[in-house]
Amino acid sequence: MVKNKNTEVPINGLYDEEGTLSDVASEEMTETSVAEENVETEAEVTLSQEELEALCKESVCPGCDVHKEAESIRLRALADTENVKKRLVREAEEMKKYAGESVLSDLLPILDNLDLALGHTENLDAACKNFVIGVDMTRKLFLDAVKSHGLEVVDAARGVEFNPEVHEALGTSEEEGLGDNQIAQVVQAGYFLKGRLLRPAKVMVNKA
Question: Which helix (H) or strand (E) holds 193?
Answer without folding.
Answer: strand 191-193
